[in-house]
């Protein structure tokens, strides 16, 4: 059964650097703990993984933010750590403690035992994609995602989150050969995982390189960027005759924008340390240009609505007027510079989304 036709294609058009009547907006982690309805569904599911592995719950929470806010895209409800979990590392989320793996990947023997997962173990993710796409019924496009090879390696080697990346950087500097082997396996696993999401119905895909920015200059290019490119090179360009845009978000990657310009993707995601005007000049115009996504500081959402609106306007004005008319040119997709905080008041998100839509429409009308 084919999916319903898309009613709001502003996000996909902006990804392809085509004009839109407003700047599309969605938020990283838009389905999450700041929403009371998310917390209620999570309580029913019993745990984060209980939520993510149940197709009906995953569908329900993906749609929750869209019921509240006129967002221009939905993002699959899942987690980047499903891939190392399927590799047999044993993922769990203890309440309030962040992710933990039963096994880590630190020794030569650990690396020798590592392989790309059997995609059947991730069937629940692909089933969720198809179920969400049906439930969306063409309202907005659905974004699939994965962690980058480097960001997944950080969790696999550390065994969870980290403040100093001691174990993963030890492996990288002491045994670069082993690190490269882990990253090559991760890259091939991520590419197969994203292609399966595309086949299941994802209309765009995003690679989260959340920890690329912790690397030294030189190490970033060799251990993060090269493997993100290895993923991109293997991705399906289109599905069912429709182009599937690819977004790469490197938190802390602003210093390397010129080196990210040749990446084989359509969109670069930016955190709040980057000037959108500068990014547009560097990578948003000319041959090989990218659409830009971002980049308001998520902490802006703690301020009152009037301050949120003022900060939204600054971000939109920093990018400047996007491309209008036929053909392609510079475009902006509004987002946060990183995931939304669980302490965000939900009504403040209303102020942000409304300000993006109204100011970006106003900006297109003035000459
Ligand atoms: O954006 C969305 O709405 C889709 C869902 C989504 C989640 N995680 C759900 C989630 C996405 C896109 C992610 C990506 C993810 N997961 C990243 C990359 C983006 C980023 O934030 O840098 C990373 C690094 C992770 C790993 C991860 N998952 C951590 C560190 C944690 C615990 C910390 C935290 O914020 O709670 C998670 C758990 C997680 N993933 C939650 C959600 C809604 C909260 C878990 C809960 O409900 O208890």
Task: Describe this protein's structure.
- With 367 residues, this protein is an alpha/beta fold.
- It has one domain: TIM Barrel (Alpha-Beta Barrel).
- 46% of the residues lie in helices and 12% in strands.
- It has helices at 10-15, 36-45, 48-52, 55-68, 82-89, 108-112, 123-136, 149-158, 166-174, 176-200, 219-234, 257-260, 276-284, 305-319, 346-365; strands at 74-75, 91-94, 98-101, 142-147, 204-209, 238-239, 242-243, 246-250, 267-269, 291-296, 332-336.
- A seven-stranded parallel β-sheet has the order 1-4-5-8-9-10-11. A two-stranded antiparallel ribbon has the order 2-3. A two-stranded antiparallel sheet has the order 6-7.
- Helix 13 links the parallel strand 9 (267-269) and strand 10.
- The relative contact order is 0.14.
- The mean pLDDT is 97.
- The structure holds coproporphyrinogen III.
Which characteristics define this entry?
alpha/beta; TIM Barrel; two-stranded antiparallel sheet; 11 strands; binds coproporphyrinogen III
């Amino acid at each position: 059964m084919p999916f319903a036709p898309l009613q709001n294609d502003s996000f996909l058009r902006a990804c392809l650097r085509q004009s839109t009547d407003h700047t599309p907006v969605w938020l990283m982690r838009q389905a999450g703990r700041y929403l009371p309805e998310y917390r209620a569904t999570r309580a029913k599911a019993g745990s984060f993984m209980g939520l993510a592995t149940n197709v009906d719950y995953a569908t329900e929470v993906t749609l929750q933010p869209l019921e509240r806010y006129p967002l221009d895209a939905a993002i699959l409800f899942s987690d980047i750590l499903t891939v190392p979990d399927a590799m047999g590392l044993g993922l769990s989320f203890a309440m309030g403690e962040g992710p933990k793996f039963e096994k880590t990947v630190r020794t030569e023997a650990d690396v020798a035992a590592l392989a790309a997962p059997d995609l059947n173990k991730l069937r629940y993710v692909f089933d969720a994609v198809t179920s969400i796409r049906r439930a969306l019924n063409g309202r907005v496009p659905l974004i699939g995602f994965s962690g980058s090879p480097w960001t997944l390696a950080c969790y696999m080697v550390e065994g969870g989150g980290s403040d100093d990346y001691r174990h993963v950087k030890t492996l990288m500097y002491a045994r670069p050969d082993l690190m490269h082997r882990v990253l090559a396996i991760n890259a091939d696993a991520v590419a197969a995982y994203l292609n399966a999401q595309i086949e299941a119905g994802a209309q765009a895909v995003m690679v989260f390189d959340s920890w690329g920015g912790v690397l030294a200059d030189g190490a970033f290019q060799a251990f993060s960027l090269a493997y993100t490119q290895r993923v991109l090179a293997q991705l399906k360009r289109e599905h069912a005759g429709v182009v599937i845009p690819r977004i790469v978000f490197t938190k802390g990657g602003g210093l390397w924008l010129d080196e990210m310009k040749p990446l084989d993707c359509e969109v670069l995601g930016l955190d709040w340390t980057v000037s959108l005007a500068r990014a547009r000049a560097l990578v948003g115009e000319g041959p090989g240009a990218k659409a830009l996504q971002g980049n308001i500081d998520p902490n802006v959402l703690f301020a009152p609505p009037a301050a949120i609106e003022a900060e939204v306007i600054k971000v939109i004005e920093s990018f400047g007027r996007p491309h209008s008319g036929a053909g392609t040119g510079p475009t902006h997709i509004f987002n946060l510079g990183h995931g939304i905080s669980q302490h965000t008041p939900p009504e403040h998100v209303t102020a942000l989304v409304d300000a993006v839509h109204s100011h970006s429409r106003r900006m297109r009308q003035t000459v």
